[in-house]
């Protein structure tokens, strides 16, 4: 089983809906999948050959690309790596 990453984001109040949309589009292009029912949470699964250091680097790189594409400057991101995706519940 490859490493899984969960990315959670918080945007500042100055970030527009258009910027968020562009940010999301870029993350999708980078193969991240939006987690349903959470406003700014994403997940991605890596191949067995990808270690945690590379998975973290790739996830951060995807965020950087989305930040640049959307011109967002006010955000905070957190990434969790593990062997399983977190359990999502309501």
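Q: What amino acid sequence fits the structure above?
A:
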């Amino acid at each position: 089983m490859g490493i899984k990453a969960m990315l959670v984001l918080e945007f500042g109040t100055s970030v527009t809906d258009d910027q968020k949309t562009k940010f999301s589009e870029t993350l999708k292009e980078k193969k991240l999948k939006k987690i349903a029912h959470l406003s700014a949470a994403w997940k991605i699964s890596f191949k067995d050959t990808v270690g945690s250091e590379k998975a973290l680097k790739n996830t951060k790189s995807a965020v950087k690309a989305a930040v640049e594409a959307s011109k967002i400057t006010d955000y905070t991101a957190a990434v969790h790596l593990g062997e399983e995706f977190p359990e999502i519940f309501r």
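Q: And what stands out in the fold?
A: Residues 11-82 form one domain.
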